[in-house]
Design brief:
With 315 residues, this protein is of the alpha/beta class. Helix content is 30%, strand content 28%. The strands form three sheets. The chain has a seven-stranded mixed β-sheet, with helices on both faces. A hairpin with a 2-residue loop joins β9 and β10. α1 packs across α8 and α4 crosses α5. The radius of gyration is 20 Å and the shape is globular. The relative contact order is 0.13.
C-alpha cells in the first residue's frame, strides 16, 4: 500500500541513494526523478524529471566524502526545487559534513559548520533534519526549523539483543560522557571514561581510564569513527587494563584510510555502525555490523509532512 498524498516527494543525490531508496520504500512512495550530471570541467548539473509545484519535498543527502561534491549537489538540488515552486524544501542530512569545525579552537579559525548552515539556508531550504550532530550547538546555527534525530536507540536495541554480560559503556573522551550515559541506561550498565589529549588532528594519546573495566565487557561509543585512531587505541588500552572483550559502536562510519585496516587489526570484537554514510567495499570488514536508520528517517519525514511531533519518536 503506497502513501496516499501525492504532494509528498522524496529526492536524493549521489551521496547515499541506497538509504534514500530504503526511506522511500518505508514511506510507500517512489523516489523523485532527478538526473545529476557533470560538465567536463566538473560543474554539477541538476535536471528535475517531474513537477514539484506546491509539493512538500524532502532531499536525502548526507554530506559525506567527497564532502564538497555532495554538498554542491545538495545546494544546487535545493536551488532547482525552489525555482520549480516547491511549497517546502526539507533537507535530510543523515551526516552533517564539516560539523567538527563548530567553534574557534585557535586564533583565526573558521567556523565552517556555521558557513554550511548559511549556505543551505541561502540555497532555499525551509527545514533541516539531522542525525547525531557532532556538536549540539550546530542546531543554533540555523534560522529555520531543525529536527535532530538520534541513532543511539538503534545501536542500543542491537546491543540489548546480544545479551552481553557484565557490561561497562566507555566514552573515548570527556565530551562523549552524555552519550555513554544514555547507552548505559538502556543496557543497565555503568560507564567509564577515557581521559586523553589530542596533540594534533587525528592523533590521540590515551592518558587514563576513569571507572572499573577489569574483567568486564567494554562497549565503546562515539558519534563517528573517522581514521579509527582514537577508538583502536582506546580498545587496546582497555584490554591492557583488564577488560574481557571490547565492542565499539557509532552512528557515522566515516572510516577514512587507514580506518578499515586499523579496526580489522584491533582487539575490537565487533564494530556496530549505521548506514547514515554509504560504505565502499574497501571500508567493509568481517567485524563490521551495519544497522539501518531508514525507518526512523521515514517516520520523521511523515511526522514533519503531517505536522506531528518528532520528539515523541524518542520519548
Amino acid at each position: 500500500m503506497g502513501y496516499a498524498d501525492p504532494k509528498l516527494k522524496l529526492f536524493t543525490g549521489n551521496a547515499n541513494p541506497a538509504l534514500a531508496e530504503e526511506v522511500a520504500c518505508a514511506i510507500g512512495i517512489d523516489l523523485g526523478r532527478c538526473q545529476i550530471d557533470r560538465f567536463r570541467d566538473g560543474e554539477v548539473q541538476i535536471k528535475l524529471g517531474e513537477s514539484v509545484r506546491g509539493c512538500s519535498v524532502f532531499v536525502v543527502q548526507p554530506t559525506s566524502a567527497p564532502v564538497n561534491e555532495h554538498l554542491m549537489e545538495l545546494l544546487i538540488t535545493v536551488d532547482a526545487l525552489k525555482r520549480a515552486s516547491a511549497a517546502s524544501i526539507n533537507v535530510v542530512l543523515p551526516y552533517y559534513g564539516y560539523a567538527r569545525q563548530d567553534r574557534k579552537a585557535r586564533a583565526r579559525d573558521p567556523i565552517t559548520a556555521k558557513l554550511i548552515a548559511d549556505l543551505i539556508q541561502t540555497a532555499g531550504a525551509s527545514r533541516v533534519i539531522c542525525m547525531d550532530l557532532h556538536a549540539g550547538q550546530i542546531q543554533g546555527f540555523f534560522n529555520i526549523p531543525l529536527d535532530h534525530l538520534f541513532g543511539l536507540p538503534i545501536l542500543g536495541r542491537y546491543l540489548q539483543k546480544k545479551q552481553l554480560q557484565d557490561v561497562v559503556v566507555v566514552s573515548p573522551d570527556l565530551g562523549g560522557v552524555t552519550r555513554a550515559r544514555q547507552l548505559a541506561e538502556r543496557l543497565g550498565a555503568n560507564i567509564a571514561i577515557i581521559d586523553k589529549r589530542r596533540p594534533e588532528p587525528n592523533v590521540a594519546e590515551v592518558m587514563n581510564i576513569i571507572g572499573d573495566i577489569e574483567g568486564r565487557t567494554a562497549v565503546l561509543i562515539d558519534d563517528m569513527i573517522d581514521t579509527a585512531g582514537t577508538i583502536t587505541l582506546a580498545a587496546e588500552t582497555l584490554i591492557d587494563r583488564g577488560a574481557r572483550e571490547v565492542y565499539a559502536c557509532c552512528t557515522h562510519p566515516v572510516l577514512s584510510p587507514p580506518a578499515a585496516q586499523r579496526l580489522a587489526a584491533s582487539p575490537i570484537k565487533e564494530v556496530v555502525v549505521t548506514n547514515t554514510i554509504a560504505l565502499r567495499d574497501d571500508q567493509r570488514m568481517d567485524k563490521l555490523v551495519v544497522l539501518s536508520v531508514a525507518e526512523i528517517i521515514a517516520e520523521a519525514i511523515l511526522r514533519v509532512h503531517e505536522m506531528r511531533s518528532i520528539s515523541e519518536l524518542f520519548d
